[in-house]
Write a structure and sequence with these properties.
- This protein is mainly α.
- It has one domain: Vanadium-containing Chloroperoxidase, domain 1, CATH 1.20.144.
- The chain is built from six helices and no strands.
- The termini are far apart.
């Protein structure tokens, strides 16, 4: 059942993708802007991860809340990365360009399309920021959405790949958040 849904989604993507990226191919400035913004968003996210981890480690507010924030910045993204890596190796779904789609951004990786690890990691980082500083968290969620869309537009992931990556990180975040609240009596 799930494979049928996934296959139907890939077929819809294959039909619609050429129209989506036609303008990017025709207008080099648009393509260049897309590439720069995509790379910048990833760099900003990982920079914000380092900043958030350092802030949570070295700027203690209250012992229990401090530990709660540190755990969200360290354990949740790390677990999302590991779980996503294991799941994508187990599924080993082909990437769009392996199935005849001409990607906007050439890539050589074979398989490992689902779930999207970029998306899973940026969502985990954004959720950590939601715990530490909700305003920055909202900005990071917007950046995470942009990165997820850029993976689809680049032609390196299907829409369900990025949705699965985001969903996986949300589930991991919620499970850890519940566990942290049980273990650490913060509110």
């Amino acid at each position: 059942m799930i494979y049928k849904i996934y296959d139907a989604s890939r077929e819809r993507f294959a039909r619609r993708y050429p129209a989506v990226c036609r303008y990017m191919r025709e207008y080099k400035a648009l393509y260049t802007a897309f590439r720069i913004l995509s790379e910048a968003a990833v760099c900003i996210t990982y920079g914000m991860y380092v900043i958030g981890t350092v802030l949570s480690l070295f700027f203690e507010t209250n012992g229990i809340i401090w530990l709660y924030e540190v755990l969200h910045f360290t354990v949740v993204p790390f677990t999302s990365f590991i779980v996503t890596t294991v799941v994508r190796k187990a599924i080993n779904a082909p990437r769009p360009y392996e199935r005849g789609i001409d990607p906007l951004v050439p890539k050589k990786t074979k398989g490992l399309s689902c779930p999207s690890r970029h998306t899973a990691c940026v969502v985990a980082i954004a959720l950590a920021w939601m715990v530490y500083a909700p305003v920055f968290g909202a900005v990071m969620i917007a950046i995470a959405v942009c990165i997820a869309l850029s993976r689809i537009i680049a032609g390196v992931h299907y829409p369900l790949d990025v949705a699965f990556g985001a969903g996986l990180s949300i589930v991991i975040f919620v499970l850890y958040d519940v566990a942290f609240r049980i273990i650490l009596p913060i509110a």
